[in-house]
Amino acid sequence: MALLQLSAIKQLQKSITRQKQAVSSHCFNWPSDQAIAPDLFIRISKAELQVANLVSQLALLYQACLALAQDRVIDEPWSFEEEPPIDPLAGIRFVFHAQTECDLPPTIEQYKELHELAMTYSQFQKARRQLVQGVTSSYPELTDRGELKLIPKRSLTLAAWAQKEYQQEIADIDVDYCLGGYNQFYQQSMTLLQANTDGQRTALSILQLIKLH
What we know:
By secondary structure, the chain is mainly alpha-helical. Helix content is 56%, strand content 7%. It has two domains: 4-119 and 179-211, no CATH class; 122-176, no CATH class.
């Protein structure tokens, strides 16, 4: 069963980038009459780096697992006795344990700022839609690519728009909890890697934990 959905995490990433842009103007004390929390810019900046690394590393992990599952990785020991055998899972292990700050975190709580912002995604998106609706004669709709599409009010009945808004709020709540399965995903991946079983089988098992869309 999939524990992570990469597309939902990418939606969260886009939202955090927009929040970063929204508070960036305060670096120039503009608008001067609007105060923000002193540490808000730092927290959003850290969350932006954290989610970018998470998306990058998960994508790298997915590709490494896919390559091994499709038999595009050498999984046989070299014939030369003086050479150590090749670990077919080396590329997968590297994503978890490269001994750098970019390693996937053992728990999502390590990315404190990202974890906190994730839970406010739906609130931010709703406020964003309301802002657009308040200054235009259109209803805003979020596309699959995370962009706002403006729909003329005359093309929708109030009931039709209410249904669209309800569906969007449900989708946004899913993003709120897109990191909820991360810790279990990490633990299960570690268990699979430590079992030292067949490389392809391990890769396939990890792939089942990650859903692209």
